[in-house]
C-alpha cells in the first residue's frame, strides 16, 4: 500500500491540497456514498459546465507554480490529471482547448483512457487495469479519442489511430513524450496511474472521489 511505502521511505511523501472550486458543488464533491455519486443528477452536477470551466481555469492558473516553471528557463516538471470518466475527460480536454485558444504559449495537453464497457471507474475511485481492447468503446468515446489523437499527431508529426495496434503505439509514444516533458498535462481515465515511472512528473490533479485506503 502507498501508506506503507511512504512510512518505509520507499517513495516520497505527497503534499496534498484540497480545493473546493464552488460552494455550490461542495456537498457532492465530498460525498463518499457510491450510490449517491452514481445517481444521474449528481453525475450531471459534477460535469456541470461552470464547474468544469472553473477547475480547468484553476489548473491553468496554478500549473506553472505547481510544476516549478515560474521563471524563464526553469526546467520544472509536468503534470497528470486523473478524472472519473470518459465524459469528464472529454469536457476537460475541450475546456482547456477553449480557454487556451488565444494563448501565445498554451500548455500541450493530451489524453488517454482504458476501453472498458461502462467507460467509467467506480465512484469511490477504484483503479482499473489498463486495456487496449477497442471493441468495448462506444462511438462517442471513439470519436473523442480520435480527435484527441489527431491533435497529438499534428503536434508531433505522427500517425496514430484508435485501432488496436495504432492505439498501443499511441500509448507507447505518449509515455515517451510525457517522460521527455513534451506533454505538459496528461488527462487520464484508468491509465498511467500505476506502474508508470516518470521522474519529470511531479503533480497529480484529481477530480474524482478516491478510495480512503490506497
From TrEMBL:
The gene is hsdR_4. This is Putative type I restriction-modification enzyme R subunit. PANTHER family: TYPE I RESTRICTION ENZYME ENDONUCLEASE SUBUNIT, TYPE I SITE-SPECIFIC DEOXYRIBONUCLEASE PROTEIN SUBUNIT M AND R. Keywords: Hydrolase, Restriction system. InterPro entries: HsdR_RecA-like_helicase_dom_2 (IPR055180), P-loop_NTPase (IPR027417), Type-I_R_enzyme_R_subunit (IPR051268). Gene3D superfamilies: P-loop containing nucleotide triphosphate hydrolases (3.40.50.300). It comes from the Bacteria. Residues 75-209 form the Restriction endonuclease type I HsdR second RecA-like helicase domain. The keyword Iron-sulfur does not apply. One of its GO terms (biological process) is DNA restriction-modification system. Its EC number is 3.1.21.3. Coiled coil: none annotated. The lineage of its organism: Bacteria, Pseudomonadati, Pseudomonadota, Gammaproteobacteria, Enterobacterales. GO terms for molecular function: type I site-specific deoxyribonuclease activity.
